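Database export, one record per block. Field names are fixed; values are copied verbatim from the stored entry.
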Amino acid sequence: MGITRRDFLNGVAITIAAGLTPLQILRASPQTANQTLYYPPALTGLRGNHPGSFEHAHQLGRDGKTFDFGSVPAVEEFDLVVVGAGISGLAAACFWQQLKGEQQRILLINNHDDFGGHAKRNEFSTDDGMLLGYGGSESLQSPRSNFSPVAMGLLRKLGVDIDRLEQA
C-alpha cells in the first residue's frame, strides 16, 4: 500500500504547523544573558503543553482549518518518521533501527522542547556538581516484575541500569 506525499503531509499537518511557531514562543524558559546553549534538560519551571505548542492543532481539530502544503518542497527523505518523541516514539525508532539496521534515517517529530516524555530527566547544576532528577521516570519503580521481556530488552539496549535506578 502506497501513500502519496500529500497524504503524508496532511497526516502530520499538526506537527508541521506547530513547527511554524517561532522558537521564542516554544521556549518555556527565557534565555539568560550568560546562557549560550539552549539545553532543555537544564531548564526549570512549568514546561510541556505551554502556549505555542497546541494552537495550530486546535485550529485543525476545532476550527476545521486546513493548511496547504502542496507547494512545500520535499528536500529530505527518511526511512521512518515518528510523530511523538516520548518513550513510545523513541522505542519505535529504536526497534525499527534494530530490525532494519543502523543505516536507517529516522526523523523524530515532537511538539515539546525535549524528548522522552515522562521518562526524561532534569539536570541541576550545583556547587558540588550536576544533580540528575527524574522528570516522570519514578513510574519505573518495579521493572523486574512489571515489564515485559521486550521492555527489559529496550532498557538494556538504552543502557538503563535498573539496579542503579533503584538505589537512586
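Remark 1: The longest strand covers residues 121-126.
Remark 2: The radius of gyration is 19 Å.
End of record.
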